[in-house]
User: Fold these one by one.
Assistant:
Number 1:
Amino acid sequence: DAGVTQSPTHLIKTRGQQVTLRCSPISGHKSVSWYQQVLGQGPQFIFQYYEKEERGRGNFPDRFSARQFPNYSSELNVNALLLGDSALYLCASSLWAEQYFGPGTRLTVT
Amino acid sequence: GENVGLHLPTLSVQEGDNSIINCAYSNSASDYFIWYKQESGKGPQFIIDIRSNMDKRQGQRVTVLLNKTVKHLSLQIAATQPGDSAVYFCAENTQDQGGSEKLVFGKGTKLTVNP
């Protein structure tokens, strides 16, 4: 079975631009969560979606938004990029409590 | 509050030795904990989990111990191999009133296995 997939793998953007990251969960998983991992730190929770509804939101500004589609895939959008948004963005899918992570998208903002 | 941290940022062991990675948590209401392994350039990989109604859980070469009295979690890796070299995170699963479940991670311990 395929695990969680994310695209793109790497991305370079300039300050002020907007970015969209994509995630496909494990087949059968209805919940998708997004995390930001800054170099040298543990992942920080951004959003959780379940059955296309936002279930939870971490301490991130409104520049961050997300959505989940009928097939349970998800997109994370970040507007007005700042240098500090440079990080590894991880998507995790879950059926129950166990969350399984994808390989991440490495975003670099210059 | 929610605070999951690790005692040691780095750990270096010899191949074949046993490794112990520690973790402290502060939310006594937490009832589910997970250990993840993260290799360079990859996403966290699920290793083993434990619920608060257990003190110990064993997997293949790994054991997780939970001490709720002192809010301490540890991961034991038996016969450590070079392929075990990675950053290890403990994560605390928290659930809010809206039903959202999120993982609260510590900073991680970098394990280096010397041949």
Note: The two ends of chain B are 41 Å apart (CA to CA).
Number 2:
Amino acid sequence: GAGVSQSPRYKVAKRGQDVALRCDPISGHVSLFWYQQALGQGPEFLTYFQNEAQLDKSGLPSDRFFAERPEGSVSTLKIQRTQQEDSAVYLCASRLSSNTEAFFGQGTRLTVV
Amino acid sequence: AQSVTQLDSHVSVSEGTPVLLRCNYSSSYSPSLFWYVQHPNKGLQLLLKYTSAATLVKGINGFEAEFKKSETSFHLTKPSAHMSDAAEYFCVVSTYNNNDMRFGAGTRLTVKP
């Protein structure tokens, strides 16, 4: 596609609900990142994929967060039993290689009520 | 591991005056460094990047940054601010070995008429 696409753009979840956030990276991009951006803060690293391999998940805040990229393209970030502190914008980015530009999606704004 | 520190959370300048946004990095390996801009309710956009070529990097919209290894800095400058430059700016570090990107906390630039 022309850019990184994320869906849904907005999601309201009741506390305790499970959510799944989708990221369609730019075709052919090997690297894929997930970030969490709380209101007024910089993006915080969550996890990184190279093709289908999840090479770094050190930023996932708890075992309620899970990410996958089974075929090395589309990625899903799943949050189980959502809590209010999970409210944030979740950003996905993809890039061709380590020293090239990363392209970001518009993000998914998650609000947990 | 690598990290970035953006030394100012908020910078305010008058239209037509110079802009300086400061960034210091920490990295065990030769870093790649980026500046991204985020306008309200918009996605992150790359301004410029340093990837071990010329130390003075020119980006879009008249911005430039200089990589200074001895000072571990990558400050962003612009000779003359426009009202449209008002946004949040993020300094980002990435390394080939770690192959991930870490964001600074961001600097909010305000431009006064």
Note: Chain A touches chain B through 23 residues (CB under 8 Å).
